[in-house]
Amino acid sequence: MDQYTGKRLDGRYELHEVIGVGGMAVVYRAYDTIDDRTVAVKILKGEYSQNAEFLRRFRNESKAIAMLSHPNIVKVYDVSIGDRIQYIVEEYIDGITLKEYLDQQKQIKWKEAIHFVVQILRALEHAHSKGIVHRDIKPQNIMLLQDGTIKVTDFGIARFSHNETRTMTEKAIGSVYYIAPEQARGDYTDEKTDIYSVGVMLYEMLTGRLPFEADNAVSVAIMQLQTDPKPLREIDPAIPEGLEEITLKAMQKDPAQRYQSAAEMLRDIEEFRRNPSARFQYKCFIDEKPTKYIDAIDSVKNTEQPLYNDNYSYVEEENRMPRKKKKPVAVLVIAGIAAAFLIALVALGVMAFQKKQSQAPKDIPMPSYVGKSYSEVVSTVSSPYSFTFHKEEKSDSDHAAGIIINQTPKAGQTVKSNADVTLIVSKGGEPIQVPDISNKTQDDAVKALESLGLVPKVNAVVDDDVSQGNVVSTDPAAGTQVAKGWEIKVYVSSGKLDQTIAVPDVAGRSDSDAEAKIIAAGLTVGSKTYQNDTGKTKDTVISTDPLNGVKVAKGTKVNLILSSGEVTPKTFEVYVDLPKNVNEKIIMRCYIDGAFDNKPQTVNPSYNNGMQTLTFSGITKTCKLTVTLDNGNNKEQKYRVYTLNFDTGQTERITSEDGTYTPAKPKSNGQQPNGGGQGAGD
């Protein structure tokens, strides 16, 4: 039994059993004693409570889902971020995950598939309108109720959409079958990232298979980046053409070619619903420009027109004046030709210089290529630079093959637009085969996994065949190839089911009856603790520790929490504002539900900073406090009226019943009136 099962959080949430274990939190089925309902409580794992990154993610989830209110998104009831424990209280979903449903059905009908997808898109449309991108949409995070209602859950890696990226090193690979290409590369992610994941789920529902599958997750990630999915109708010709188009458009690798919003995809689905024979004429996965490497020389195109026309025609014109000699005419013609040629040469030189200047390499800041796919970087036709790329490969288990892990020059350095750039590209790590550790002790199993660079996560399970403390199985199973750093769930036997006893429900019974029932169940009675203010008669059982229904070993001590039958008076303060611009003693009296509650107090507003503090004690649930002021002429005036709640300790002023204070008129001898009694104003 873990440290929280059978306990109560903050005196309110009774934790009954573990219903889910994630990478950073454990989820419990619990009972809310105040609101009388079953809830799900997600508690951050103890090993991460001091980890700033995980604590930030947990708080981010709290912040994200607290902003959301939609029938297709799991509700959040309460959030507690303390120093020792952090938890979220959510709506308890009595259903199964979409993953479990797909495992049962294998392939589902297209009408049912779009029924699910429409609900998911509506949930995402609401989240996106709040600036929140889920970024982990997959069947495991979709809950399916018995009536067909969909609930999107688990915003553990949700991010606000502005300026957010996520890389493979952040274990995006955990959902590798559904992540978008830009998410795997570590590029900017936005609403279109969730659209891609929805497209993959729709593909899986319609065909009964995932679009990309391989022996290991690293290979799947590479396929997400580089490989086009097989058309749906090649797998099942019964799938409508319009629905195939919708699915493949959502799965476009270029975010600009996908649906730009959940609303846009919903419009096409609704149109298809109205007319299943509809076609959308989308061009999916067609590269109209063949991939090519950019040559620095060929990228400069000479498009200039001829700089001058040297195809001259000269006609000698007779001189109308008497000509004595022809030599001067020839000289003039030659001189004209020479001059024209000289001008042409000068123009050519100027234009050539300008062309050379325009083609000269420019100083630019070096872009960042780290985290991007090498093939995409070197084949980008739209690149504004004429870099010459040099590739060097290096083994790296933290990055998928083909991902750039370093570069020279570094990002941000000033370089020429035609610079030589060396890219260090990951060859990927050698895949690791999950060993067979069944029937090994927990310690031996953990050591075996850690020695291979894997991360074991131990979970206790009941098993009739495997000895207590030994390994039952692993997830992924033995023989599966995974990457270094992969999380391996290790299921360890807690023994046979018949070795445990459920704590009986004795709440509301007398002390003696509860003892008899606990002993009859094969358990023993431990300590007894009394509580006040329970509303139950003396010696009546309020609850047990462990809680009822929790399975424990035979002979375990069960502690009883009993009612003392007493109610503790509660005390709180009321702050009364005094009349302004009054410099005289005033008699103040208080009445609780019309009855005088205290001796008169004499106050002077000019000495009390304009405020008087009153203290009250009681056990009455609510009552009415009336404050009066007397100017000394025995003219008592109603001044302030309040409602006091002794259960909550809250005070509420009833402004509609407020009165005013009229100062006393000066006496004939010029002296100010003086009230009697000893009060806080003296």
CATH structural architecture of the largest domain? Orthogonal Bundle
Number of domains: 6
Structural class: alpha+beta
Distance between the termini: 64 Å
Q: Look up the CATH topology of the largest domain.
A: Transferase(Phosphotransferase), domain 1
Tell how many strands the DSSP assignment holds.
34
Low-confidence stretches: 157-174, 286-350, 352-357, 670-682
Radius of gyration: 40 Å
By CATH reckoning, the class of the largest domain would read Mainly Alpha
Describe this protein's structure:
The two termini are 64 Å apart. The chain folds into six domains: 8-91, Phosphorylase Kinase, domain 1 (2-Layer Sandwich); 96-274, Transferase(Phosphotransferase), domain 1; 363-426, Trypsin Inhibitor V, Chain A (2-Layer Sandwich); 432-495, 2-Layer Sandwich (Trypsin Inhibitor V, Chain A), CATH 3.30.10; 499-563, Trypsin Inhibitor V, Chain A; 570-657, Immunoglobulin-like (Sandwich). The protein is of the alpha+beta class. The strands form eleven sheets. A six-stranded antiparallel β-sheet has the order 1-2-3-4-6-5, with helices on one face. Strands 28, 29, 30, 32, 33 and 34 form a six-stranded antiparallel β-sheet that branches. The chain has a three-stranded antiparallel β-sheet with strand order 7-9-10. 23% of the residues lie in helices and 26% in strands. The chain is built from 13 helices and 34 strands. It is extended.
